[in-house]
Amino acid sequence: MVKVGVIGVQGAVSEHIEATKKAMENLGVNGKVFWLKKPEHLKEIDAIIIPGGESTTISRLMVKNGLFDVVKKLGEEGIPIMGTCAGLIMLSKEVIGATQEQKFLELLEIKVNRNAYGRQVDSFEAPLKLAFSPEPFIGVFIRAPKIVELLSNKVKPIAWLGDRVVGVEQENLIGLEFHPELTDDTRLHEYFLKKAL
Ligand code: GLN
Question: Which residue windows are transmembrane per the record (predicted)?
Answer without folding.
Answer: none
